[in-house]
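User: Structure tokens for this complex, please. No commentary.
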Amino acid sequence: MTVTDIVGITVSTVILGSIYGLVAIGMTLIYGTLRILDMSQGSMVMVGSFIAWGILVVAGWNPTLAIIAAFIATFILGALTQLVSVQPLMKRRNAIDFEMVTFITTFAVAMVLTNVALELFGPFQRNVTPVISGAISVYHGVDLPYQSLTMALVSIAMMAGLGIFLARTRWGMAIRAVAQDLDAARLMGVPVGKLYPLTMGLASALAGVAGVFLGGLYFAYPQAGDLPLLEALIVVIFGGLGSLPGTVYAAYAIGLIQSIAEVIVGTTWSLPILYGVILLVLIVRPYGLLGKPSEARL
Amino acid sequence: MSERSAVSDPSAVSERPALSPSAFPGMTRGRWALSGLAVLLAAATPLVMTDQYVLGVMITTLILLVLNISWNFVLGVAGVWNFGQLALYALGGYGAGIIMLHSSVSPWLALLAGGLVAMIAAILLSFPTLRLYGIYTSLLTFAFAEVIQYVILNDGSGLTGGSFGLPIVPGLYSSLSLAAAANAYYWTTLAVVVASTLVLAAIGHSRLGIALRGIRDAPAYAAARGVDPLRYRILAFAISGFLAGIAGGLYVSYDQSISPSVMGLTPMSVYVTMLVIGGLSTATGPILGTIVVQIVATLLVTHPSAEFTILGLFLLVVVVFVPDGLAGLIGRYWRRIAAWAAEGEEQRTDVADTAAQTEGSPDQHVA
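Assistant:
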């Protein structure tokens, strides 16, 4: 392994880890608060990509506007998803199959969103203008596009922002309180009914912003959310469902595994190798890196 | 699915009878006659129905039924979130197909071998899932399916044919003419569907089925009562895997080919929709769900995005409003009609009301 490889792996770990973290942290937030695995998060990435395409390519407006628009639109869409597919089931919250039922309903929402996009925009892959063009040379042969750098910085900023929101603000503390003990939170006057859509809206908005950047790296198309969803699933389960620090560590760990695998065996086998590693981790630690069996986390 | 939550209280498990005297409780003579008639009608269809396209759709539906019945056993009855079932289906298909292509043994033996290949893979898959719970199981099994798909796609020896799949496989009825073979496939798959429904329903009410539901609904309680999760889960995976492999073998011989596209997220989402709409863990659920979804899919075959939008909305509505699926819905109306009929009977004769009630309120559910 040459120095170029090592620098390349480091750069790619930071970029991949940041973007995985942004999508996965929303899923962790939702799982920690509502105890559901939200399968519609991938579609939020797709919606974010299409908003970026609409604003940057079709309208030709400012990239900052695209990020803000994607944030607001996916926030609303996420809150609506909660109201439609999860809220009616909340009374069955303690049933043994609650996780599976909500897994299926959010999956149904993802199916509808993907195919509505297919109906509206067709199956074509649309080029999305990068938010920022150009690249800096980090080392001989290793280029770091500004798009990826911005993406990593925005991801880290948003993850930090979420951390501060959860730790400092009233609403953030309410979310943590619900995650820790629903009944106690209710007794303290936390408006749980409003909190659930807020949580899912917030998580979806993070995925939507990730979509703006991913659209610039790849394309905007109806299935654009499938791969990010799969990767986010791997990250949250690797890190331990519902553990925010675990998710962040897992995002970078998986970014590292994938970067090394790409350098050594090439892109085709990087996903199966990732699965193999996860399989081993789950056999040794069935609840992920920092997960705890059936306990309130976050 | 609500059945499961109803039994989350451990005391409810012990109230159930340990074993029913009949292998098929709830099946009255009238219901046997009705089911027999339905099977006979289904068997007679190709004699009247000469449209090859419709017959082809029906054969595909029957093959999917075998797959969904096998999946329902592990997903519904055993309650293990196995999302690797399509990999077992593909393994059975490739196993049978490769033997049919490269050896001169009877294609029926090849079909059986495909089932055995899938069964062995299922038993291997059952070990790591034992340590996991719920959503973790689903990811692990899905990862297994992805790895199998990758291996098939990137096989260097040329045995699987990569993304193009297997070339023309002779199949079970290579000596018959096209139309006669279609009829033969129809009857074969129908027989497999009927046999597997009967066998799995009987297993569902046997000691094995009760043990599986016990482990599903109250794992700690079941273990405390001496039900060994390891033994029963391996058995459940083996049975379900074998049947999925047979479904794959039937697919490869009817379609004369199989490619890695039989696996993946898109087909899986359709099959999950079928199971959930029909009613998980019931005997009739997979049959109803598969037929309804297949009809919707066939009607909208020229418009796939509308098909998936409708299926998604359908799935959402069913899960929210009819948690036990179409089978549960029909069962409830059936019981209401039966209760109403029993009431009328009571007024007329005033005797044998208990008999009318036990006969009139059959529980269609396996679980």
